Amino acid sequence: xxxxxxxxxxxxxxAGSRPVRRxxxxxxxxxxxRVWAPAEVARGKSCDCVCPACLTPLAAKAQSSQAKRPHFxxxxxxxxxxxxxxxxxxxxxxVIEDRRELLLPxxxxxxxxxxxPPQAWDDRGxxxxxxxxxxxxxxxxxxxxxxxxxxxxxxxxxxxxxxxGELLIEIRVTHAVDGxxxxxxxxxxxxxxxxxxxxxxxxxxHDPDAFEQAVLFELANRTWISCPQAIEDxxxxxxxxxxxxxxxxxxxxxxxxxxxxxxxxxxxxxxCDARDKAGRRAYMRQLERSKHANDxxxxxxxxxxxxxxxxxxxxxxxxxxxxxGLLDHAIPPVQSACLCTHPDAWIFGVDPGLWQxxxxxxxVGQRRAGxxxxxxxxxxxxxxxxxxxxxxxxxxxxxxxxxLEARQAGFKKRRLAYWAFTDEENALIPSFYEPINTLxxxxxYAQLIKYLPSPTGECVVLxxxxx
Length: 467
Prior knowledge:
16 strands, alpha+beta, five-stranded mixed beta sheet, rod-shaped, three-stranded antiparallel beta sheet
């Protein structure tokens, strides 16, 4: 099937080429240039009619039968299969020419190319509709009717004139209006409708009154191929709608521009605030660091790895005799617990094994089972008893206190670090609590002491194990 131009694609729905079903009897015969129904002529071959397609003689049959529909039949065997279609086509044109009236369909537009009412989307994706073009179905009287009249390079089935002007009529029985014809009609601004009889029921084709009704006044079988006035009105409506949407888009663009300006201004303000905040933070950082300036200078020196290795060697050399003496009186679990040390255990200014053995002896070894003490007591005793690194302790206590203040302010802070110190400085500051905690954990593992549920860090001395 030839495709209809896009502008008219739904004015004439592309239902395909739908020929009348096989088995149709010949409903009309041709005689003296006119098309006749079986009831309008004499019976049998006296009807003097020929087939509208192959022009061979016909016989009128079943004119008064109650069981069969009146029809024509070929008198001789023939291969003609188009007598029905051709007869319907000729009879339809003849009915229009005789009656000189016709129902014109409503113009509904094109769902894809020309929706009625017109539609347009704005820049926000919102759908807008314009004014709907109203061309209702109406009966028209035909002032002039002429069949097969050439109009330049094409020939419509019927050329007619009504109160509006020229009207071209196409009768579809097998083939729809082809694309080229539709284009030419559109280009010349003619009105054209198509009456689709391709799906005509057999009973209608053999009933002259029903056939006449289907040709002249059946609303469902006709569409506009070209309706210039409706298209012009639709284009005016679409143009007005596009102008409205364009105006709305300008307003939306202005809103977007104002919103973008507000965002830029807000970001600029945030940048200024951030710079001000960074400046204030830098000032406060410098102010806080100044309180610990000397200790921070010593931090790098005191925690230098080669220096730690050197002092540990010196501590071990000077404490070797005392450590040996303490180990001689210690049971194996005590030896195992006190000779393993935490990496920061050097900060107390003596050999780690010495202060751990002495701390055990003071809080556990010389006590009876059931004696209670707290890890904080051990930490205080060790700092009192031994020459710990005071600059490092001050830095550690600053970290500890600042974390406590942050938690009290509602921050879930776990890391032991102070924002005024650099990450490198925070990492270098040794812990004064972890070596004590580690020693207590090893004593508990050796079943020399036991942790109590509360308060935090509370311990109780146990009876010495058997071995």
